Amino acid sequence: MKIYNLLQNGKVIQSPSPGTLAGWKQGKIFGRLDCKSGMRMNKENRVFFLDLEDAIKEGYRPCKNCRPINENDFEKIRHLVSYKTLLDFYNRDAV
Known about the structure:
- The protein is α/β, with parallel strands linked by helices.
- The chain has a single domain (4-91), classed as DNA Methylphosphotriester Repair Domain (3-Layer(aba) Sandwich).
- It has four helices and six strands; from the N terminus they run ββββαβαβαα.
- Strands 2-1-5-3-4-6 form a six-stranded mixed beta sheet.
């Protein structure tokens, strides 16, 4: 059975499931598991997140290609970011 390392609450946990989102460590970008951009990256540069909040808390921004969050998602994490709109959040510069 394959085991995935997920970032959850700032700690790495092991899980048989990859979580709901994947990220690119060097660019601090996260997206859906089926995102073509994410599938092209090397496995050593990939990180998995249990949920959206974990990706945001780690300082990752959403992928502009697969657009993994919508307005409802943004409202749920709005307290974690300084951006006023979802469009601003998508268009921010990489950290």
